[in-house]
Design a protein that fits this description.
homodimer; about 230 residues; alpha/beta; Rossmann fold; Alpha-Beta Plaits; 6-stranded parallel β-sheet; 5-stranded antiparallel β-sheet; elongated; binds adenosine-5'-triphosphate
Chain lengths: ~230, ~230
Amino acid sequence: EKVFAVFGLGTFGYEVCTVLSSKGAKVIAVDNQNKLVERIKDDVTQAILMDSTDEELMMSLPLEDIDIAVIAIGDNIEASIITAALLKKLGIPYIIARAISDIHGQVMKQVGANEIINIEIEQGRRIANKLIAPFILDHIPLSANQSLAEIRIPKDFVGKSLHQLDIRKKYNINVLSIKRTKTSIDDHGNPVKEETALSPKPNDILKENDIIVVIGTDKDIDKLKK
Amino acid sequence: EKVFAVFGLGTFGYEVCTVLSSKGAKVIAVDNQNKLVERIKDDVTQAILMDSTDEELMMSLPLEDIDIAVIAIGDNIEASIITAALLKKLGIPYIIARAISDIHGQVMKQVGANEIINIEIEQGRRIANKLIAPFILDHIPLSANQSLAEIRIPKDFVGKSLHQLDIRKKYNINVLSIKRTKTSIDDHGNPVKEETALSPKPNDILKENDIIVVIGTDKDIDKLKK
Ligand SMILES: Nc1ncnc2c1ncn2[C@@H]1O[C@H](COP(=O)(O)OP(=O)(O)OP(=O)(O)O)[C@@H](O)[C@H]1O
Ligand SMILES: Nc1ncnc2c1ncn2[C@@H]1O[C@H](COP(=O)(O)OP(=O)(O)OP(=O)(O)O)[C@@H](O)[C@H]1O
């Protein structure tokens, strides 16, 4: 059972804490803003109001229990760097830290962070890739010439069966799965999306917005573009 | 050939612009900070210094050409909202906008944004999932009981061949691919990582840090945990 310590409860750090907790991990959440510590305390193992650049206060944490520390402090570069240096000094085995620039990331590694994430760069890259090839949702190269891809089905596939479409012969790709999203309404009247993965049967009729998971060459996958 | 207009050249917006440009898209980059416009101008089709909340200036943009607008303004919620409202009013067909809170996202949709991204929440979720199951790098459900997963190989697989490991019989999963990362040094002395995807041959020896792409049930995939 891993114990995580998250320093900084901005939107990013807060989400890290709540997702980790929802998956059963032990989470120690730290921030020097009272309202954030108060808001999270029922959702984590321990919520602590403190300045993570204060060495004495840091030494009062249950350090021997902490497996992984996440530094989720963005704008305050000084606090981010000092927090990393202290965690390293106090022997925390693994430190993953947010960096908001290349030089910030470099310094974080120099003072002891094992891993750096720049969330704006990662998201910028992800969004740009999604905008450029909107029909390809995921792309995993399997070998020099074979890939797995999740693709939104072209409009002219809607209402036809896999057998009718004869995809393997016509497009030279193998359909491993069909993903279909169903939207229902929860008790508060909010739309809830539910995605189901179905094994592809020859007489299944494809529906609008279906996603097919396929294996083939990149060239053949591209040919499916709407 | 799609034309993108990106408003806001912070780290996120800047990355969106450069990745889109590197993939051959036409990019109009807008910001009201001169140094950011100057820095990006050689990497995009057009870089414009302007306040995107100014309706007259917005009308001077090549609006009929723009297919997709990306609003990459974070902290300045007012500017973000006004920019979306103007782009909607001026008939831009698709608007994707960054939101830094749920209410900000809701308002952006109300004033005309087609799609919202909260980069801190998405990254928080992604990092937490990666921390909880570090050996599983990607997980794609294929049907009710089959998934595709990218997994870091357990330590005791290192130095053995697929034939020796007899993975299909012993673990009941199918290896589709091996991903291996090679680190070389570029002309500036910086480490450059290169990932290759290899088709799995029975006598290939697995190396430390290899990633295998497998198909199997979630239960069988979990059993591979180090
Ligand atoms: N020395 C410190 N000790 C403890 N917490 C700190 C310290 N310095 C900053 N923080 C906290 O780190 C959190 C994240 O800082 P940041 O400046 O990135 O804020 P943010 O922009 O609200 O975060 P996000 O980008 O995740 O929304 C804040 O809640 C802040 O209170
Ligand atoms: N009215 C406006 N017109 C044009 N550009 C604007 C306007 N308001 C803000 N911007 C620009 O949007 C960019 C992103 O704004 P934000 O406040 O999110 O800055 P940032 O924190 O540097 O961004 P990031 O989180 O991507 O690093 C800034 O470069 C800013 O100059």
